[in-house]
């Protein structure tokens, strides 16, 4: 396993000049300033790399602050030539700010629905992803690479070993923890990439003495749950949000089609599911027909079932109290509160399937589903965001990766990066 560190993309002259101009136009000189303010409202030139700049400061041992609800969730960083240079090269707008201006801002923060959250250390990030990814991209990996945030790629061997203890934050994407390969067997079983994926997972199951892939994936899901229980943070998107829950609830139930384990689905599976083991959902109906490319009725959009498929619209971020519910407030920081929706293997979460106590961060008004949810489990927490790629609404198999250099201000990708910095926050959750 190797840690991946992103190298900045080629310099964009216009962005750099604009960033430098913003800094130069400020009334505070470098000698006078002790901090720089990275605005995250519409004045920001590159929202996504602003997160990378903050991570860079934390990685180098600096302290930072996340000013929740202040100019779109701005960052206060220590002033240094290295940070200024990196900001300019990455096209990140910033301005020097002296003690008097900081004091004035803190008075505004104290009197408004805002808060200053200390960020103490760079989180240790892992991406749960196969050694050779399928021929479509992972939005979180794209976000981390573009922002310049370091991560380590892990897979089943690492999860089943002791490696999870090395990390603060683990991302799960479109993995099918039920062991059914997202039911892509139905249409893609002859494709070389599918055969490679199947053979890899079968070999991994055998190496760890599991009878089949569904049993392997259930064990992996259980280890991930234990990681959260001990104090870790999990951020899941797309199909992983739904399938990890099904795998956890079906620990002692066969919900996998015969093409994966040689035995049929238990016809009484729904009644035998143990939802006390899950993070977010309860009482879901398992899709038992191997010919229907859906896992359950948790997903509201059912994108892969033509007769059930729902159209895309927009979803709205909720406005939380920064002082009384700082965690939820951090997770929805943005310069836009209405965001275009986008499909994924799992696109949305039906409200009727949510456990009591789950915090809804965003929903689509007038529908029975929500888009973005969060909750605590044991000493840790989890966040689920529906959909595959915030900048690719349809995202068909084989679609080219999204070029974030063309979308540096993506509000959807900001939600991903909010979650990456969340573990760095000093303040613990306070429930309203």
Mean pLDDT over all positions: 89
CATH top level class name of the largest domain: Alpha Beta
Q: In one word, what is the shape?
A: globular
CATH superfamily of the largest domain: Class I glutamine amidotransferase (GATase) domain
Largest sheet: 11 strands, mixed
What structural category do the secondary elements indicate?
Answer: alpha+beta
CATH topology-level fold name of the largest domain: Rossmann fold
- Based on DSSP secondary structure assignment, what is the total number of beta strands? 16
In percent, how much strand structure appears in the residues? 15-25%
Roughly how many Å is the radius of gyration? 22 Å
Low-confidence stretches: 1-28
Tell me briefly what this model is.
The protein is an alpha+beta fold and about 425 residues long.
Report on the architecture of this protein.
The N terminus is likely disordered. The protein contains 14 helices and 16 strands. It is α+β, with helices and mostly antiparallel strands. It has two domains: 117 residues, no CATH class; 300 residues, Rossmann fold, CATH 3.40.50. Helix 2 packs antiparallel against helix 3. The strands form two sheets. Strands 1, 7, 8, 9, 10, 11, 12, 13, 14, 15 and 16 form an eleven-stranded mixed sheet that branches. The protein has a five-stranded antiparallel sheet with strand order 5-2-4-3-6, sandwiched between helices. The radius of gyration is 22 Å and the shape is globular. The longest helix has 17 residues.
